[in-house]
Design a protein that fits this description.
390 residues; alpha+beta; Double Stranded RNA Binding Domain; DNA polymerase, domain 1
Amino acid sequence: MKVPKLTRTIVAEAKPAAPGSSYYVMDGSLPGFGLRVHPHSKLYVVRFRRKPYTIGPPEVFTPEKARERARDLLSKLWSGENPNAAPGLTVADLFARYVAATEGRKRALTNSNESRLWRIHILPELGAVPVAGLTRERVGNWHRSRTATPARANRALSVLRTAVRWAEAAGIIPSRSSDTVTADPFPEYPRERVLTTEELARLGAAMREAEMAQLVPGELVTVARLMVQTGARPIELLNARAEWIDWTRGAILLPISKGDRKGRKRGRALWLGPRSLEMVRQIAPASGPLFPSVCAADESDRSGYNRYERAWARLCKLAKIEGATPYVTRHTFVSRGALAGVGIEGSSDLAGHADIATTKRIYHHADDEMHRKNVAAMEASYDGLLGGDE
């Protein structure tokens, strides 16, 4: 069977590879030239003596342009030249090499998030720029132009700098090339939103109404209740499985957690109070997902989260709560720990933070009720001291 020539249609229709794997779609007109398809990216490559050499992504190169580069690369390879010597390396070339070398060492969700930053925030403006041309002025102008998405601009700058440092370590570009990949980061402010006592009461009433009137699927109402009562990260609870439950300890033993690092114990315990444990006991199957309608197929699958997000928005509308994302339940859980007499160390453990500084900086927000209680106590300490109280 004749192998077809790579076209834009073939490249666009190539389906993502399974997690942790890749496959090739070879070109019929130039032996050795083809497309390597990863789970979250596609890269034009040359296969020479069973070794792949990356050309670049379809977002930057058309099949025709990639084929021209492949022909030049094959010519150099047959002549015995070293393809790793890359004095004219562009940012797009850097992206291709960096992804090919590091994708297998990171979680699928990390790869997906980084690839999105490259495609949306880095490659459109800097893809054709030589890495040697990344001056402080150019990088600063690029970064400042992204004022509409300051947090993502900061993440994109960090990803670009990491890739340049990787190229330095690999001997692809001169050392200290990353010194110019810098800019003043945009200020970022932690989300202060937590649910007040009154809002929690309205949310509880909205949950009961939604269940009775079938305004929101009962499974998603249960998820919302458990989010409030456990302080779980949405992805942790949505993807929980029955076989992870330790009924004796009263916890869901998550095999993977956000804070996992090399050399550190993986996963964490998601602790359940008596009510939460009984709620889970009533719905838990013998095995499989606790919440089948929202459990993700893999880490990059956001369809279940999107479905829960819509259900949460419906509950908030019924409860007349504004400006509350699904993550507000986690913020509220830790903040109310102070009202319940739980110390910040205990709150940090329950939230699964690797560093207590994270709890202090981001999540430990005392709400208005706590502020009123504290200021009343402070005011009472002055009774009789300032006069007029006789």
